[in-house]
Specification:
Distance between the termini: 79 Å
Low-confidence stretches: 39-44, 48-95
Order of helices and strands: HHHEHEEEEHEHHHHHHHHHHH
Strand content: 5-15%
Helix content: 40-55%
Shape: globular
CATH topology of one domain: Leucine-rich Repeat Variant
Strand order of the largest sheet: 2-3-4-5-1-6
Largest sheet: 6 strands, antiparallel
Oligomer: single chain
CATH architecture of one domain: Alpha Horseshoe
CATH superfamily of one domain: Leucine-rich Repeat Variant
Number of helices: 16
Mean pLDDT: 78
Number of strands: 6
Radius of gyration: 27 Å
Length: 404
């Protein structure tokens, strides 16, 4: 064993109260507890030739272990996960709970290898919780975004998917305490489009400045924003587009399993149909087939622009028979009910459901109308319990359209 390994094992000794992986400068020290939980059948019989191990197949699959452990089910079994004591409302409240005076950012690491990202704002304030709430308000009011996970109040951080022109970037924002009343707000791009991230950072600077915070940047040149967005198509040229012109984009939309390509196609289509004249020309069977394909993708980067695209498309009178033919209304309702659907997508789909129901109510068969109305009623109650009143209102409007 070489010296580095000896040092590592010494570092992981039983006497060590805290463990920090060598080379990981972003992970804070934490107490390590090492243990093992044995199934009852893992305990060796008294006459076993193995000391402390049971006779059997030590390479068996986890499912075999679960069967052997009955009636002691594994905590990893899906059926053991219960949601009865945790309502959608409490989960949402936890995810978006605002910062209070009891929350205080952790001190910036003193490690010599640590340095702030170039996209870091430095502010002076005696109320750090205001910074956190200002950032949450920025996500709600200034950009189209969705939190990836609940706000981390201990680390004073959150991660969000942010959209601009229907293109997504995932950002992480964390606040650090430096000294006295000095704090650092660090923005990191975790994945997605760099231009969207840059634009979001520039908007955050303006939002903080407009709110009266004294803001300085690590690099003063970061205030010089540059617009890299491609110029829009001339209005006349855009209105002359037809389904044939959209063939490359529709082909991209059909690339199941290739999220980045589908996301690019969905963003392009959502942008195009903001013009009603373009939308009217592409209400065709093939387009609705690809709408269905895009809506079946569960990733947020595809689902959000796809929901926007569908919302514009179903408003057209020519879309009524196609909505019924391809089961678009039922599909959108299932996505609204899904626990994996982000709020930003759910809101767009709920509005699209309302518009689709009003547009297609005369073409939906009577039996199907009753089934959809019942499903809409159940989903509406779920959203009301969860506190999503705007979504519930859109779904109720769709229910009323199909009930009469």
């Amino acid at each position: 064993m070489d010296g580095s390994n000896r040092n590592l094992f010494a570092h992981l000794g039983e006497s060590a109260g805290e463990y920090r992986p060598p080379g990981d400068f972003y992970l804070e020290p934490d107490t390590v507890t090492r243990s093992v939980t044995l199934c009852r059948d893992d305990i060796a019989p008294l006459d076993s030739q193995f000391k402390g191990l049971s006779d059997g197949d030590y390479y068996q699959e986890p499912m075999g272990m679960h069967k052997a452990c009955e009636p002691y089910p594994s905590s990893l079994e899906t059926s053991d996960v219960g949601y009865s004591s945790i309502t959608c409302e409490s989960l949402k409240t936890t995810a978006t709970r605002r910062f209070t005076q009891a929350d205080f950012p952790l001190e910036a690491p003193k490690d010599s290898f640590f340095q702030f990202e170039i996209t870091t704002l430095f502010v002076i304030t005696d109320m750090p919780h205001v910074i956190g709430n200002l950032l949450l308000d920025f996500l709600t009011d200034e950009v189209a975004s969705s939190l990836v996970k609940p706000v981390n109040h201990r680390k004073f951080a959150f991660k969000a998917d942010v959209f601009e022109q229907y293109i997504m970037a995932t950002i992480k924002v964390r606040v650090y305490w430096k000294e006295n009343k000095h704090f650092a707000i660090e923005f990191q791009r975790r994945r997605g489009d760099t231009l969207v991230f840059n634009s979001t950072f520039q908007k955050a600077i303006r939002h903080a400045t407009d709110a009266g915070l004294e803001v300085t940047l690590r690099n003063a040149q970061m205030t010089n924003s540059v617009n890299f967005a491609p110029p829009p198509l001339p209005q006349q040229q855009a209105r002359e587009l037809s389904e044939a012109d959209l063939t490359p984009i529709l082909d991209m939309a059909g690339q199941i399993g290739m999220d980045s390509i589908q996301a690019e196609a969905a963003a392009a289509l959502a942008k195009l149909v903001e013009d009603d004249m373009v939308t009217l020309k592409i209400c065709t069977t093939r387009v609705f087939q690809q709408v269905k394909t895009l809506l079946q993708n569960g990733t947020t980067e595809v689902a959000y622009p796809a929901a926007r695209f569908a919302k514009y498309l179903v408003q057209q009178q020519e879309a009524a028979p196609l909505i019924v033919e391809h089961g678009i209304l039922q599909l959108m309702l299932e996505k609204v009910q899904s626990k994996t659907t982000k709020d930003i997508v759910r809101e767009e789909l709920a509005q699209a459901c309302s518009m689709a129901a009003h547009q297609s109510k005369e073409t939906v068969p009577q039996v199907e109308r009753k089934q959809l109305a019942v499903s809409l009623s159940e989903c509406t109650r779920q959203m009301e319990v969860a506190g999503d009143l705007a979504i519930a209102q859109s779904l109720r409007s769709a229910q009323m359209a199909l009930s009469y």
